[in-house]
Amino acid sequence: MPLDRSAGLIDTARALAAGEVTSRTLVERTLARIEATQDTLNAFRIIRAEAALAEADAADRELAAGVRRPLLGVPVAVKDDMDVAGEPTAFGCAGTHPAVAEDGEAVRRLRAAGAVIVGKTNTCELGQWPFTEGPAFGATRNPWHPGHTPGGSSGGSAAAVAAGLVPAALGSDGAGSVRIPASWTHLVGVKPQRGRVSTWPRGESFQGITVNGTLARTVADAALLLDAASGNHPRDPHCPPAVDALAAVGRDPGRLRIALALKPPFTAVPARLLPEVRDRVVGLAGTLAGLGHTVEEADPPYGQIGLTFVPRATAGIAEWVADAPFPALLDRRTRDAARLGRLLGGAPLRAARRAETVLHRRIGRFFETYDVVLSPTTAAPPPRIGALLELSGFATDRAMIAACPYAWPWNVLGWPGVSVPAGLTPAGLPVGAQLLGPANSEPLLLSLAAQLEAELRWHERWPEPLVTDSPAV
User: Fold this and answer.
1) Which residues are annotated as catalytic?
2) At 273, is the secondary structure helix, strand, or coil?
3) What is the dihedral of CA 97, 99, 102, 107, to 10 degrees?
4) Based on CB atoms within 10 Å of each CB, which residue in 105, 200, 215, 374 is the most buried?
5) pLDDT for position 472
6) What are the φ and ψ backbone dihedral angles of 390, each rounded to 5 degrees?
């Protein structure tokens, strides 16, 4: 079968192993697609053209010698908060940043699986917001509607996968930053258990609320990339028991008790689920009921969970700002958040960290009644480019919470979640729904997501191409 932009991670790896295509050919075509869309889509901060072609040639030599690894020769992208040896890690910030000496652990594991890292994708400054824009790199656009954001903060990775530039990509998720852009670009986004994919050289990123996750068009591709990136550095503080994500995709999830949670967790500012999103999430609940699952409306007992999120998030920003080489170039909102983080970094932070155990017990009891929570990933469709860029800090927070009130509690808990496509609004904008579970429940969530995918076939629906693809090979 010829390969074009619609070929996923698994199909690409199989074609390479079968000798149907070379890694160099695939990487050349990937780089051509990236370059052709960079002026419009703007998904990448760094394009590793020369290095990626050298890695592709090395992969072809291994393939010719009979070596087989899960992703040998497959082009993938990573978000620009992850260290890639020889490249800067700007994390959305302005300025000329120094190259790092070593791969981060997640990138090291991708390379060990044979992947070719074609580039580092755009993210907003220090990953704080659900849009991918900034003076350091401009605006990354949504392939479905270029006037709208793909979300954030892993918006570059989501845009690259949604447009077919790469078959899959790594992102990171500290308050929904994988799941939100997955929702807004019609992708599968996996936020794994804390520690599943190492964030080293930081043992904890943003005081443990941020994890690395995967974005892909299909559940199987997201699971394969998750398996390839999973594992720990010897000094990681969180080392969950291993799971076989890809094996779970082919497994029947059984008949499950699913809680449809439509009420946003309590926040200090209003958040309202818009009807065009609600209708699609409720429709997904109907599909699950039709597949034999028991679905009923019920909301997890979140309580005042937001009080534990703010100290961890802002203290995490303060830690990154302390390491920033050009603090004067940072957004005023970033500097204000860091100032708050320094104020909350003592007793409030310690109390927030201690509260996690209480939350695990209380919300864990909810999973004695239900197996999975289904909720909207966001409350609204993706906003227009520029809608949040120039707001004050308070106005940004209000707009962000109003649009995205559902994802962040699972970052506090450190538990897994999978965002899946829920359809398009009447205006043609993608929205998604989350499947959420307790600790180490990735296999169950992926199995259920794969069952939904087999029924709904969301991966067969594509945005219009921004450029004409080169001939299939």
Assistant:
1) 79, 153, 177
2) coil
3) 70
4) 215
5) 41
6) -105, 15
